[in-house]
Each structure stands twice: as structure tokens, then as C-alpha cells.
Amino acid sequence: MTAISYPLVERTLANGLRVIVSEDHAAPNVAVNLWVGVGSRHESPGRTGFAHLFEHLMFQGSRNVKSGEHFSALMDEGARLNATTWFDRTNYFETVPTGALELALWLEADRHGHLLDAVTQENLDNQRDVVKEEKRQRYDNVPYGTALIDIYATVFPEDHPYHHPTIGSMEDLDAATLDDVHDFFRAHYAPNNTVLTLVGDITPEEGFAAAEKYFGPLAAIPLQNRPRHAQLPPMDGPVRVDRVGDVPNDRLYVAFRLPVDTTPDYLACQVAVDVLGGLASSRLMHRLVRTDETAVAVGGWTMGLVDGVGLGAFTVDVSSGADADEVEQALCEEISRFIAEGPDEAELESVIADTERSWLSALASIEERADHISHHALLTGDPDYVNTFVDRLRQVGADDARAAAAAWLDPGSRAVVRYLSDSSGRGEEGEAA
Amino acid sequence: MTDVARPVVAPPAPWDFPVAQTHDLPNGLRLLTYDVPGQYVLSLRLGLPISLRDEPREREGVATIMARSLDEGTERWSAEEFARLLERKGVSFGAGMADSGLSLDLDVVKGNLEPALDLLRQILTEPAFPQTEVARQVRTRLAEIDQERAVPSARAGLEFVRTFYAAQDRSSRPTGGSRDTVAQITRDDVTQFHADHVVAAGVTMVVAGDLAGLDVPALVDSALGGWSSGGRERDRHLDRPATLAADRSRIVLVSRPGSVQTELVVGAPGPDRSVEGGWAPYPVLGFVLGGSPTARIDAVLREEKGYTYGIRSSFRPRRAGGLFLTSGSVRSDSTPESLHLLVEILGSGSEGFSDKEIRSGVDFISKTAPGRYATADAIADEAVSMALDGRTTEFVTSNLRDLRTVDAARVDAAYARFAERAGIGAGPRPGAGWTIALVGDAEAHLDAISALGLGDVTVVRDEHA
Fold first, then answer.
1. Among A12, B65, B341, B385, whose Cα sits 20 to 30 Å from the Cα of B194?
2. Which pLDDT value is given to residue A428?
3. In terms of domains, do A195 and A246 share one?
4. Which residues of B touch A366 (CB under 8 A)?
5. Nearest chain B Cα to A6, which residue?
6. How distant is the Cα of A156 from the closest Cα of chain B, in angstroms?
7. Tens digit of pLDDT for each residue in A16-47?
8. Any idea which architecture B251-460 has in CATH?
9. Taking a C-beta distance cutoff of 8 angstroms, is the pair A332, A411 a contact?
């Protein structure tokens, strides 16, 4: 057992920017990480994919920065940088040599404060095309590439903010206008909707002073965030979607609504999902892969979200010649058995040891550490979660995991998305409740 | 509101790769340790100089099946018991074959190093290769072959090596074996391959992380000192270059009717790290041509045209000879124009590079080094990769020093040397020297691609599974 105790010092600037500094002088680098409280869950109907398209525009110039200069100026100083968009947030990050920290903050403040001075129709049109290619590459042109999109649409109600994927639809990307860009920036991009984390070769006082110097002049905005949705209950009956087409083998995704991220019930579900499908020595591995030999691979994962629901799923790659219906039935039997019995001591010990190593590996790099700190500062209000996560998981007892599985992983509330090879001679693509 | 003045950047201090302590065990195992304070997960890597050419032709893939079966049961434990033993100690383990040899990766929190080493000992010296587990790994690999055929980037890669390397060379075929050969692999094949090749002679082991308070050499000696040397000497690296196909300069188009994108791989023979004139200019070349969103390729194909999410180029050195590879995907209806532009840009090196471009490449590669090698796993990965290349990580440091002296003249000369050896720009055909593999809608694009005059175009149609 390794004690995790990364130092964290936090200060909020007068304009509402939350700044967190974690000092670590092991390398002459600083990880700069900004999380903005806007993601695809804030998108309006007819504008899916917009938060992500907007993120691309953040690299196309701002008041004092030319198009593309954000990348080139930072890379010339030895920065590794990018940005990502997800349901609940958008993040912007660079790891820089210590001497380039102030340049990074200057560039970030320029675009986070003054993007609209530089946005053009030409840039919007170009990045719209680039994002469409990103969608084709990641989702449309690979086998099973649209499975997650199907899962979100099946598990979350139609009017729920997680019903549509962050990548959006081609039609909505086409519909995006320059006015949308202006409205979106003014509604969401401001210091009081942002967390700035600095991890690395810097003291807290140096970090706060630099943040104040570059971000202090930015003005707060009136935020009009609605309250988060109330917790969604589990689905009230099994739902399934079958996609029959050109995939190498049948694959099942069996998904469930979960509690929101970091709650004790969410963590208990995480333990249950790991024991059932996440560990190398999981129950589904034992049953489907090693004993029945009806699957070549199994997996189990959870996705922590904040707006009234989380997501958990098991994935199964069905062996050639095995029957997908029977595999699904066996999977449900294993879940039911877990709900009846709960995990044993060795299983709990495995989850903790495996999680501890993977969590420490994640925190080993300053960029990933900064990202987790920003995440929890922005979305759960508790950046110290990086230090306490493993201990919290350790507190999940066998009965907690069993009870959480009974409440949230009941096979009667599952959503099943199946990608079936059309060579197996099944019927037409369709949805059935 | 007044804008804050743009700050001036203080240049970083020169940086050296961490220095290893070396310990040679009598059985031929060489241990390299890197103490990296604050890295609480230790990264262990082993590099075994085992060649894919050691596989029997009709059993290709046996090294991969053997690697994946190493932790699937030992003399004392069943596969499931062993998986649980690893997991209860928080050990992640993996093994895989590559052109440079067999690599084993093991990560574990510092406090569990000793039990992890005993588990590693069992993996290396006491694997049981149970029949059911070998058969399962064979089935899994066969399913993986189907996946590789279905994923455009993987499919393009397979077609590239098939076109680029001579048919009799092992490199022309999948590292993990093909359907016909993998289906033949038996437990006896795996057991024999392990007995013949997984021996300590010539093996390099790396342990990186926060080593304070640990006597790593003593722990490793205690765990692995009894590992058989195999009764022979073995070089720490493989040396034989691959043979290229005589007709490698051509275009192969894998047909995917209705595909919304075209996947492309464009490659040519490149240098290895011992190249005359030094290795340092080549990563700079790769960066300037296709290493970033501001590189020559994406400046046109992404930022100007919007045809791609991004295309990347890099030099991939092997121990003897290497590759220059460019890959990515483009919108289907832009395929002929994208290919034309791509070949033009890749050939544009012959017109030289600007000082500004070279400065950017040199600065990015040299100034990112301390951060790129800040974690235990990155250090261990680099160390084992250098060992299998017949080098030590002192090469990383000396190369970074040399990199600071790289200017446009050296890069121009490096490009010219590469282009001459690859046959790029030889004769009137603009595609000369390049091997091009495409996965896309052949019906829609074949005529236009042929009309580019880059070279002969062959269409390949996969049978439906």
C-alpha cells in the first residue's frame, strides 16, 4: 500500500478563476491544464457537436495570436499540447519547459478572453471539414465505431443531455454559424467557469502570481447554468438495439445507468463491474472465455458523469460459431449470481491492488496528474480526490458492492447493443424495445 | 481592458537522459537500473533478441502465441490462479513480439517488487503452456486477424509491408502470423520455441522508478540468477536487414466499396541510427514534413483543404535499415487530389528547408525531451528499445547534443541521402521510390489515381469473411 499525497494549494482570483498549484520539481517542466465548464451536455437541439467544433476554433487565432500560432509558438518552445471535449467539459493543456510557462499562460488567456476578435467564416468552414473527417475516421469508417453512440441513445432518454454524443451529427455540424460561435463563447468561456491547474516545477506563490498576471484582467460573466438533473433511476426494462452489418465478429455491449461520479454508490458499482468484467481474472473472463469458450474477449467499464447519471457496460466479443443470445444469457446469469453472492475477499483485494497501480501510473506524469486535478476541481469540487480515490475505493465492502449491483446492474434494467456480423444470417437492422 | 505584453521565454538548460547502473549476471542477463525519484510505480522491461525469422515458415505467429501464453499457467499454478496472483499484487504484465525482438513489460508498485520478481521468474522459467490456454490464444489471434483486416489503418499497414518487402522476407508478413500458419500452431510448437529462445543469454532487463531503499541487483539476482543461459552466447540485438521487393515502388488499392474515407500509407526505405551524417537530422525531417498540425502536410491537407483530421510522417529506424512512413485518412472524394498533394509535399524536401522550419523541429524535439522521458515507463521503454538496437541510452543524450548543431544544410543533405537511396525523384514519374497502400473505394477512384501517373496501380479485393 502506497500513501498518495500530492501537495495541492488552491486560490480563487477575484474574477472567479480557480487556480490549483501542485509543486513537483522532478523535471524542469510545468503542466498547464484548463477545464472549462462546458461540454456537449450544454448543447442546444440542432447544434450537437458544437462544443467540440468550438474547441477546434480555439487554435485558429485570437486577439493577439494568428491562426495556428498557438500550436507553433508553443511547440517551438518545447510544449506538447492539445485539447479535448467531452460531455461535461472542455479541456486545454500543454506541458512546457518551466521558462515557457508565462508564454503558455499568455496564449491561453488571449484565447480564453479574446477569441472572438479573430474568428472568421473561413476558419469555421475549414475546421467544420476537419471535424467531419475526425468523425469519419473515429466513428463512421471503423467496425463498431458507432457503438458508443448507440449506447448513449439507448441508455439515456431522448431529452437527456447525454443522449447525443460529443462528436454530434453531420447535419448539426453543417448548421453551425458564426453567430453560434459568438453566443457560445459569451455564454460559457470566462474565468468564473474555468479551473486552471499548474503541476510541476513551480511554487504555489509563483503559480498564483503568474495566473493573476495573465488571467486577472479577464472579466467574469453572468453564468446561467441550470441545476444538474436529478439522479435517473435504472431503466425499467431491458432494451435492445441490433446492428447487422460488416463486422468481423458479433459483439455485445450490455449497458446500465449508474449513479453520478464519485458517489459511494458509483464507487461500489465500479468495484462490481471490475469484479464481473474489468479484471484479468474477472468472472466473465472465467465463465465466457475460459469455461464456455463462447467469447474471445470480455471487458467491463464505468464512465463517471455528473448530470444525474453515470454509465457502466460490459463488452463481449463473441467467438466464431457461438450464439450471441446464449452469451447474453450467461452474462446475465453471472450478474445475478454476483447480486446474490457479492464479491469474495480475493476479488476485492484484486480490485484495490489493480486500481492502486493503474491510478499511481496515471498520476506518474505531471500532465495526467494535472488533468485529474482539474477534473475533480471543476466537476466534483474536490481536487484532493486524486489523493483519496484509492482509499475511498478501499472502503467499499463486499456488501456495498453487492447492494450497488442489486440496485444498478440488475439484468432487468439492461440496455443491449449488438453488432452482428451479417454472415451469421440474421434479420434486418432495427430497434426493438 | 489593456492587453498584457507577450512574455519572453527563458531557454531551458541542456538536459541529459538519466544514467543507468549496469549489472551483468553470470547467466548473461544484463540489468540496467534507473533511479527516478517520485515514480512510485516501477517499470520493468525485458528485451530478448529473438527473431521472427526463427519461427518455422509454416508456423509463423508461434512467437506471438508463446509470448501471450507465458502467464497462462505455470508448473505450480493454473492460468486462472496465476492471473489472480498477479492481480492481487497489482502487477500488470504483457509480452509481445516485434521486428527487434521479444519484449516483456511488467509494472508494479514499489512495495511489491519482490513478489513481482518471483512471478516474473515463474513466467520466464516455469510456464506450463496448458493445451487449453494455447488453443485459446490461437483462437484469439485468429479473431484478431479478422479485426486487422476490417480496421482500415491495420489493413493498410498489412498491405504496405506485403508490397514493400520481398515476398521471401519475414517482414512482408504479419508479425503475429497469418490465418493459415496460426491455425497450425500446437502446444508442442510453443513449448519448443520457448525452450529454444527464452533463455537469459543476451537478454537486457530494465528496472526504472523510485528505487530508494531497494537493492534491485540483489533482488533480481535472487529471482532470475537461476534462469538458464541456454548454454550459449547470444548477441543482445538482431542485425540482419530486411530485403525489399524489387517492384516495391507502386500503388496497391484495397477495395472497400462505399468507404467514406480512404486510408493511406506512403513509405520508402529510410536510414537506421548509424547513418552517415548522423541520425539527428531525420526526426527533424519527419517533424517538418508531417510531425505536427503546422507541418507541411497538414498545413495543406488539413488546415487549407480540410481533407483530413491529420496525417503523420516519421522515420522508423530498425537495427539495420529503416522506414520513412506517412499515414492517415482522407475524405473519400478527395482521394486522388490528396494523394497527388501528399506525394508532392513528401518530395518537396529536395527543394530544401528553411532555417525557420529546421529551428522549429530542432527546438520541439530537443526541448520536449525532459518531459517525454520524465516517467518510469517512458525511461524503461526507451532503454529496452535502445538495448535491442545495440545501443544504450547514452545514445539519446549524445543525439540530443548533436541535434543542437543541426541546421538547414545538414537536413538538406540528410534528405538528399535518403531520397537518393530510396530512388525518390529518380526519373520523370513523381511516385518513383514510394510504396503506396490505400484502403478505399476502388470503383470510385481507380481511374483518377491511375491518371496521376504516380506508378502502377493494383487493386486488391478481400474475400468476404
1. B385
2. 41
3. no
4. 371, 374
5. B38
6. 28
7. 999 999 999 999 999 999 999 999 999 999 99
8. 2-Layer Sandwich (3.30)
9. yes
Query: For A187-219, how does the pLDDT look when each residue is reduced to its tens digit (9 = 90+)?
Result: 999 999 999 999 999 999 999 999 999 999 999
Helices (H) and strands (E) in chain A — how many of each? 15, 12
Task: Report the distance separating Cα B33 and Cα B254, nearest Å.
Answer: 46
CB contact under 8 A, A106 and B465: no
DSSP B172: G
B428 vs A397 pLDDT, higher one: A397
Count Cα atoms within 13 angstroms, Cβ side, for B194.
24
Contact at CB, A290 and B109, closer than 8 angstroms:
no
Largest CA distance in chain A: 67
B84 and A346 within 8 Å at the Cβ level: the answer is: yes
pLDDT at residue A430 is higher than 70: no
Would you call A106 and B11 a contact, using CB atoms and an 8 Å cutoff? no
| pLDDT higher than 50, residue A429 | no
Nearest CA in chain A to B356: A76
What domain range includes position A356?
239-432
The Cα–Cα gap between B219 and A280 comes to 27
Q: Indicate if the pLDDT at residue B240 is higher than 90.
A: no
- Output the average pLDDT for chain A: 95
* Domain covering B21-224: architecture: 2-Layer Sandwich (3.30)
Question: Could you tell me how many residues make up chain A?
Answer: 433
Query: For the residues A208-237, what does the mean pLDDT come to?
Result: 95
Q: What pLDDT sits at residue B197?
A: 98
Closest in A106, A140, A279 to B87, CB measured: A279
C-alpha cell belonging to residue A391: 482509499
Short-list B223, B196, B233, CA closest to B28: B233
* Nearest Cα to Cα of residue B139 among B190, B179, B95: B179
- Tell how far CA B416 is from the center of its chain: 25
Distance separating alpha carbons of residues B251 and B248, to the nearest angstrom: 9
pLDDT tens digits, B313-353: 999 999 999 999 999 999 999 999 999 999 999 999 999 99
Strand residues in A37-127 grouped as ranges (E) = 80-85, 90-97
| CA–CA separation, A53 and A89 (whole Å) | 13
Among B438, B434, B431, which Cα is nearest to B159's?
A: B438
In which band, very low, low, confident or very high, does the pLDDT at A422 lie, cut at 50, 70 and 90? confident
CB within 8 Å: B80 and A281: yes
Q: Which residues of B touch A219 (CB under 8 A)?
A: 1
Report pLDDT for A426: 47
B331, B422 Cβ separation under 8 angstroms: no
Q: Residues 6 or more apart from B53 whose CB is under 8 A from it?
A: B170, B240
CB-side neighbour CA atoms (13 Å) of B180: 4
- Name the residue of chain A whose CA is nearest to B305's CA: A126
CA dihedral for A216, A217, A222, A223, sign (positive or negative): negative
Domain assignments of chain B as residue spans, ordered by start? 21-224, 251-460
The reply to whether residue B87 touches residue A213, judged by beta carbons under 8 angstroms, is no
Q: Annotate B253-288 with b (16+ C-beta within 10 A) or e (fewer).
A: bbbbeebbbbbbbbbbbbbbbebeebbbbbbbbbbb
Place A433 in a pLDDT band, splitting at 50, 70 and 90. very low
Q: Whole-angstrom Cα distance, residue B21 to residue B290?
A: 37
Q: What is the average per-residue pLDDT within B15-30?
A: 97
CATH code of the domain in which A210 resides? 3.30.830.10
Give residue A1's pLDDT band: very low, low, confident or very high (50, 70, 90): low
What is the average per-residue pLDDT within A217-222?
97
Closest approach of chain B CAs to the CA of A234, in angstroms?
A: 31
The pLDDT of residue A324 is 97
Q: Cβ of B304 and A319 within 8 Å?
A: no
A243 plus A309 within the same structural domain: yes
